[in-house]
Description:
The protein has about 325 residues and is α/β, with parallel strands linked by helices. Helix content is about 40%, strand content about 15%. The protein has a single domain (about 35-310), classed as Alpha-Beta Barrel (TIM Barrel), CATH 3.20.20.370. The protein has helices at about 30, 75-100, 110-115, 115-125, 145-160, 180-190, 225-230, 240-255, 270-275, 275-290, 300-310, and strands at about 5, 10, 35-40, 50-60, 105, 130, 170, 195, 205, 215, 265-270, 295-300. Strands 3-9-10-8-7 form a 5-stranded mixed sheet, sandwiched between helices. Strands 4, 5, 6, 11 and 12 form a 5-stranded parallel sheet that branches. The chain has a two-stranded antiparallel sheet with strand order 1-2. The radius of gyration is 23 Å and the shape is globular. It starts with a strand and ends with a helix. Residues about 5-10 and about 15-25 have low confidence and may be disordered.
Amino acid sequence: MEIIFDADGRPHGPLAAPPPRREAKKTQAEREKMAKEVQLPLKSWPQGIRLPFVLTFEHNTGEAAPNRPGDRPNANYFGQMEYGGRRGVWNVLEMLDVLGIKSTFFISGATAEKFPDTVLAAKKAGHEIAAMGYSFEKVRTVSPERERAIVRRSVKAIKDVCGADTEIKGWRTPDYRISPHTFDVLTSEGFTWDSSMLNDDLPYQMECDDGKRILEIPFTTTTSEKSHVAFPYPMRGGPAGVASVWNNEFDILYRESDKAPRFLILSLQTWAAGRPTPLRTLKTFLTRVIAHNDVQFTQCSDIAGWCNDVAGKKH
């Protein structure tokens, strides 16, 4: 029996080659299977560092602001947050320059497009640039394809401002609520660290479906300034309240770091910390920390490098 070919040159009939096998669709249970957590044998930090201090700033300018009924803009919310792009980030950058501190900035793609000079200034000042969504998208229930598109759009917006050769190796999910496939998406897109989780005092790795690992750098919202000093949050305690929180956090971790590894991470907002009074409070606190010679200000990528070295494998 001969093989019959159609008008397009494709064989068909009994002797035609079978159609290519399609990859079986993943079951719901497989889709919801998170990357595997891997604890690190972390005994100490590099020589001479008792307590690393990771100072981070989230730079978004109203993308998270909810609209009023009828999809009307809520100026009370987005106006407060827009301050970060108009004034706050410049105040923060000036303070960091005076103190000689290099930080990590989490940038939303939309903010990079609206306020490109602020993102470029942070990069030129030597601060680490990481991505934090495009327009504060909630990803916890989206498909892997949709989440990947958000990640790529975010990175593109930042690179369009900072240059195509800018390395963006870190990520934070905007509302800190990851999806079951967030880590898999990030490793496949070349990220080496994430800082979205709130569940530990020390970094750890996540092993993904492709066998790659990504370092998780957990943080906490208990030291966030926005709940103390910034509308629309309840503003509990004011500048004195947040100063007390920061000083107590430092005192406890510094004392504990004498016996076991600890690290201090602050996650602040350019639209809140950049206001004059909170900024003065922050500067006073940082000046106190600087007086400790065994405390080192580090960026998230430094933590990732140290921890991956401990794991004996870089990704």
